[in-house]
Structures are given as C-alpha cells and as structure tokens.
Write a structure and sequence with these properties.
It contains 7 helices and 10 strands. The chain has 249 residues and is α/β, with parallel strands linked by helices. A hairpin with a 4-residue loop joins strand 1 and strand 2.
C-alpha cells in the first residue's frame, strides 16, 4: 500500500511539472483531430498556406507580327487590336496607313505578308463625299478626293477597264490597285519611290501600290477569299472610326 501511494505521488508530481502550454497545444491538436475545426497553431499554419498559393497569370494578349518592317505606332496598335480581338473574323487583312502612305498585308493570324508605299487621295480627310461613287471622275473636285477611313470587307474584282483590282468600297468606287501611269505629268512612279510620304497624295481616292507588290502580295492574299481592309484615320480618332477599338496592353 505504501509503495502504491509513492507511485501515485510520483505521477502527480510529473503531471504538475508538465508546462501548461504543452497541454494546451495537445488539447488544440486533439480538438482539431476530433472536430475538423482549425484552432490555435493550425489557424496560423493555414493562413500561411493560403497566402503562399501561386497566382495564376492572365493569358498574354495576341499581337500582330510585323517582322522587321518599319511601321507607325498607329499601324501597330490597330494591327494588335485586330489580332487580339479577332475583328478580322479569320480573314486576311490589310492596314492602310494614310499618314505614313504605306500598305501592310497580313495573313489571317496576323503574320505580315508584305508592305509597300502607297499613293492616296489628294485631299486630307476621313469621310467620302456622299454619292461620289456614281459621279464622273472629271466632276470630282480636288477637295473631294479623299481616301475614306474605316473597316471595309473587300474582295478581288474587275474595274471598268477590265483590270483586276481589290474592291475596298464598291459603292464608293474605292479600290486598291496597281499604280496608274497613264498621266506622266503626275509622276506616280517617282512619288512611290521617294522616301517621304509628303508627295504621295495624288489619286482621286483609290489606293495605288507598286504593280509587283499587287501581283505578288495582294492577289495571293485575296485569291478566292474575302478579307478586310482597315484604312487608318488622319483627322478622326481610331475609336471614332473603329467603334470596338482598344489599346492592347
């Protein structure tokens, strides 16, 4: 009996010597095991695990590929928007930069097919004169000879002289075609060859490009398919002309 009393007394002493914090942690652990509720130390651990969860990156925006071709910021921004938004609806597309007097032809996925200088309407402006497509060329005044800005669903066709052209706006009689050279005094070939765009405003509104570029780049791009021609504005904003336009960040 005396031995048992000493034995019980020894364990009672050990119990009181165990730090209370150890018992508390053990109680928390058992409570968590039994009820599934996080408490004490487990809450702190759980908080750390939540905070260190990796953040998923947003998908990168799609962009046009200009290869090594020089292009204005406006041309690049519009091309990126076209590709990122899918505004071309899976069709090949063309960007006409009026300020830079340059044409860019793209595959449907935004890869550049080719680029070339262009001759454009003599007058500065982004709107066509109403009914101009039904008028004789001789009646069109110099201030009316604009290349209108906008988005045009386009296709290959034939003009009055049985020449193959890319119809940009059939109703407005605006097309993209080989450079016209029947008036030597206009020096259209020389204008295309100069490095500055300042002398490229000479046409009635149509877009003139080098004949080789038309035959080797434009025609193959639109062979048997429709496409989209985007004529950039020079007076209005991009948002005014392309309603759904946004800057691709």
């Amino acid at each position: 009996m005396a031995k048992n009393s000493k034995f019980l007394g020894f364990y009672a002493l050990v119990f009181f010597l165990i730090p209370f914090s150890v018992l508390a942690v053990d109680a928390d652990t058992r409570l968590s095991d039994q009820s599934g509720t996080l408490t004490g130390q487990n809450i702190e651990i759980a908080s750390l695990s939540v905070e260190t969860q990796p953040v998923l990156d947003k998908p990168l925006p799609k962009r046009a590929n200009f290869e090594q071709e020089e292009a204005s910021q406006d041309a690049r921004h519009v091309a990126d928007w076209i590709v990122d938004s899918g505004n071309n609806r899976g069709m090949p597309f063309v960007i006409v930069d009026k300020i830079g007097a340059k044409v860019f032809v793209f595959h449907a996925d935004g890869r550049l097919r080719g680029a070339a200088p262009a001759l454009l309407g003599m007058a500065v402006g982004d709107d066509a004169v109403p009914g101009i497509g039904n008028r004789k060329m001789s009646s069109i005044r110099p201030e009316e000879r604009t290349t209108p800005a906008g988005r045009f669903v386009s296709y290959m066709g034939i003009n009055f002289y049985r020449k193959d052209i890319l119809w940009v706006d059939y109703e407005g009689a605006m097309s993209l075609h080989r450079v016209v050279t029947n008036k030597p005094e206009e020096r259209r070939l020389e204008r295309l060859a100069t490095p500055t765009p300042l002398d490229n405003r000479i046409s009635y509104g149509c877009i003139n490009v080098p004949a080789t570029f038309f035959d080797k780049v434009v025609k193959p791009a639109f062979a048997g398919v429709m496409g989209v021609v985007y004529v950039l504005p020079e007076v209005k904003s991009k948002k005014e002309v392309f309603a759904s336009y946004y800057d691709v960040e």
